[in-house]
Amino acid sequence: MRYLPLTDTDRAAMLDVIGAASVDDLFIDVPSEARLSGPVEGLPMHASEMAVERHMSALAGKNLSAGSAPFFLGAGAYRHHVPASVDHIIQRGEFLTAYTPYQPEIAQGTLQVLFEFQTQVARLFGTDIANASMYDGSTACWEAILMAARITRKDRAILSGGLHPHYGEVVRTMAKFTEDEIASLTCELTGEPDDAAVIAAIDEKTSCVVVQYPDILGRIPDLAAISEAAHAKGALVVAVVTEPVALGMIEAPGNLGADIVVGEGQSLGVGLQFGGPYLGLFGCREKFVRQMPGRLCGETVDAEGKRGFVLTLSTREQHIRREKATSNICTNSGLCALAFSIHLTLLGGNGLAQLAAVNHDRTQAVVERLTQIPGVSLLNDAYFNEVTLVLPGDAREVVRELADRKVLGGVSLGRLFPAQEDLHKGLLVAATETTTDEDIETLASELAAVLEGVPA
Amino acid sequence: MTRYFTEDHEWIEVEGDTGTVGITDYAQGQLGDITFVELPDAGATVAKGDSVSVVDSVKAASDVYTPVSGTVSDANGALADEPELVNTDAEKGGWLFRITLSDPAELEGLMDETAYKAFVETL
């Protein structure tokens, strides 16, 4: 296959068209402190494989990983048990067809899985349709806001105070250059979610409200009430689900009036993986399909009348619509979507409901035990598998001391909302089917000791 | 009623100050099977040359430019369920939208049927 490299003349012509003086001009957004001007300090120019292995293992050994200590962290990524069979099945050859399946004749393996995946997501979310996945929950959230703006032709989005602050940051970063108005409500340390504030904020200029379900503090918003209020003013409801296992127990957002449902699929089939790659989920009403971003797989018949699958409605996408496309993203999270789909298939509907019940039961056990500790109280009126506990003092310090005692006790609200001192006594604690009675007892005794000032 | 044509393969049939706009049979043949048509809203004010409609086929999305300036009065609702009308009857039943002309003098710059046919021969 021939390779035709660029010449300096080619480069100069391209730079001239875009109005840049040199290639360096394309990197002006990178702060000078972050730029590299020579070899990395302390990194040898080469080392043997054995030496590299020894060094990296030593570094890894300094980590306290989720599997090796009592673990109660959540806040958008959850430690669930992914059965070994998932890893085995996703490596089957039938699934190893093109990652970019635009030629259906040689990609039926991938395409069939994506079709099944879409069906599962649509059912889980209670939406008519779902796409073949996005990068992660946070970017899916932004894409939903853009989509709502296109549909309603309005440009004001309201973000509930219960939306994960990282998702809010992604939205505000992307909106910086698009002229969309983002109204971010403040997170308050209350037992009930901020439904009333969300409803009060909706006006005729609102394109959508973005509500996380369950929310960042583990509370469960009343999506039906919010949907009624939003629709009355011509606004759409975007529901954000960061823990899909919750949908084994609480009502699907689509059935409560949500027009677009997005989420993070990491809980099923995909481990914590140090933060990624994760799996964006995206579903919506059928009447909005032409405004939906991402790949969409459809079922059809071939020239001989046999069932087959193809990517469809491609005129939404970048390679055809260019700057008028529904998104600048033209890929999906294929392997993670496959793992999600396999895991959910192995669970089935009943299995998912059982899994959800176990998650909630474990969380109840955590709450019962921890609220016995003087000074520790439960904030939430309702929860699924994650709660906010209110401690006597700054929770961030407590989390650090617990980590020193080899207990990963949760995510402090001080870490998620550093600027909001009124939240700093809050601690997010999550439990799943992997949480044992032993873990709970260890967390309880260490937390009690830390709060009393007893040395480790 | 007089029919005019553009080099972008739109036709406009004018009666009084109302024009009916569509794409030519030649254009629909070039596009292939049409799957969806995005139409302008009634009341939209447009200038000659603005993209006011998009015709989607399986592998392409083609802008349709209004041959004249004016206000869109209505669009062909039948295309929502039957976009293929643009393939089977591009120059009549597959019309796209109607427009009230604000400057009839703009029609002078357009081709008549003979000129358009000659133009297509050159492509």
From TrEMBL, chain B:
GO terms for biological process: glycine decarboxylation via glycine cleavage system; protein lipoylation. Keywords: Lipoyl. The modification N6-lipoyllysine is found at residue 59. GO terms for cellular component: cytosol; glycine cleavage complex. Residues 18-100 form the Lipoyl-binding domain. Its cofactor is (R)-lipoate. Binds 1 lipoyl cofactor covalently. It comes from the Bacteria. The glycine cleavage system catalyzes the degradation of glycine. The H protein shuttles the methylamine group of glycine from the P protein to the T protein. The glycine cleavage system is composed of four proteins: P, T, L and H. HAMAP family: GcvH. This is Glycine cleavage system H protein. It comes from Novosphingobium pentaromativorans US6-1. The gene is gcvH.
